[in-house]
Write a structure and sequence with these properties.
By secondary structure, this protein is mainly α. It has one domain: Leucine-rich Repeat Variant. Helices cover about 65% and strands about 0% of the residues. The longest helix is centred in the middle third of the chain and has 17 residues.
């Protein structure tokens, strides 16, 4: 796990996070969160969108896990990722 997330190839990095959706759907978030942490410093917008999408999917299943990750990593999360991750939050929570 994780070698594709460190690849020079954009599509391998994107696949590394999107592939975790299989596990997220089964309420297994560990690998997804590890890969997301590895990709937080990625500069490509497609990676930022994928990070936000997978965080949002985690939140659909376990909001506390998503909130905890966001609070812990808030200062490192790209703006696009954060926007995608919180777009379904209730208004009051989103503003926090």
């Amino acid at each position: 796990m994780g070698s594709q997330s460190r690849s020079d190839d954009l599509w391998e990095r994107r696949i590394s996070i999107i592939a975790t959706f299989f596990f997220i759907k089964r309420n297994d978030f560990e690998d997804a969160l590890k890969i997301i942490e590895q990709l937080l410093s990625d500069t490509h917008d497609l990676i930022h969108k994928a990070i936000g999408w997978m965080l949002r999917e985690i939140g659909k299943r376990d909001l506390k896990t998503e909130e905890s990750f966001l609070q812990k990593n808030y200062s490192d999360i790209p703006r696009t990722s954060l926007r995608y991750a919180i777009e379904k939050f209730p208004s009051k929570l989103r503003k926090q």
